[in-house]
Amino acid sequence: MSQKKVPFYRRMWILAPLALMAFVFLISGSLFRIMGGMIVVSNRPSPSDAAVVLNSGLEYYPRLIQAADLYRQGLAAHVVINGNRKTDSLRDLERRGFKRCCPWDSDAVGILTMLGVPEAKIIRISNEDAYDTVSEAEVVGPELINRKWATVIITTSKFHSRRAKFIWQKMYASRFKIFMVSAKTDPYDPNNWWKDGRQIRWVLTEYGAWIFYWWKEITGI
């Protein structure tokens, strides 16, 4: 007994959802890659007065590695670190007698010296009240100006690089030349970030920070 042939239009209706799913997958992948790449920027620097390491959580270590590499290449005469963040809770604990086990800069200095940066070339800036890139730059920038430096390299994570460069350029382009060099050992992958939970958080946080920055600019908050 011969099988009844399925009409062509019915076969197309069966294939249409699969074709649509494939199209959406391909388009979404392209859009995600564009999103991932838009937040990244890195320059080829000239020899500069310093590599300035921006401070942020566990992403700090690749930035220190990159700064040490810039020093060893002769592209940065100094390495600038900042830290010593404090909250009201920590200050209250300190008033009650709490003492940290070691100075705030000990880990960073240990890593940099291990990687070939002489301790005399490490500039430490205590920056207790920084809570974002703008407030960090507000304290670190004047310290660089006071040293009469003309050229600096900002070293940060790939996913943070474009926003950090924009902020530093906006605040200090008239005072010194700024290069942006993102950390090569930073695990962020702009072409596949949506496949990893940690990188999804980085990207969403970065776009949220852009929105918050422009909201503050527009509203004057």
Give a description of the structure.
The chain is of the alpha/beta class and 221 residues long. The protein has two domains: 50-188, Rossmann fold; 193-221. It has helices at residues 8-38, 60-72, 88-95, 106-114, 133-146, 161-172, 197-219; strands at residues 50-53, 79-83, 122-126, 151-156, 177-182. The chain has a five-stranded parallel β-sheet with strand order 3-2-1-4-5, with helices on both faces. Strand 4 (151-156), helix 6 and strand 5 form a beta-alpha-beta unit. Helix 2 crosses helix 4 (106-114) and helix 5 crosses helix 6. The protein is globular and about 50 Å long. The chain starts with 7 loop residues before the first helix and ends with a helix. The mean pLDDT is 89.
Write a compact overview of the structure shown:
By secondary structure, this protein is α/β, with parallel strands linked by helices.
Question: What is the fold's blueprint, element by element?
Answer:
Blueprint: H1 8-38, E1 50-53, H2 60-72, E2 79-83, H3 88-95, H4 106-114, E3 122-126, H5 133-146, E4 151-156, H6 161-172, E5 177-182, H7 197-219
Parallel strand pairs: 1-2, 1-4, 2-3, 4-5
Helix pairs in contact: 2-4, 5-6
Keywords:
single chain; 221 residues; alpha/beta; Rossmann fold; 2 domains; five-stranded parallel β-sheet; 7 helices; 12% strand; globular
What is the end-to-end distance?
Answer: 79 Å
Q: In the residues, how many domains can be counted?
A: 2
Work out the radius of gyration. Answer: 24 Å
Spans of 5+ residues with little confidence (pLDDT < 50)?
none
Under the CATH scheme, the architecture of the largest domain is 3-Layer(aba) Sandwich
CATH topology of the largest domain: Rossmann fold
Structural class: alpha/beta
Helix percent band: 40-55%
Order of helices and strands: HEHEHHEHEHEH
Whole-number mean pLDDT: 89
DSSP helical segment count = 7
CATH homology superfamily name of the largest domain: HUPs
For the biggest β-sheet, the strand order reads: 3-2-1-4-5
What is the name of the CATH class of the largest domain? Alpha Beta
| Beta-strand segment tally | 5
Overall 3D geometry? Answer: globular
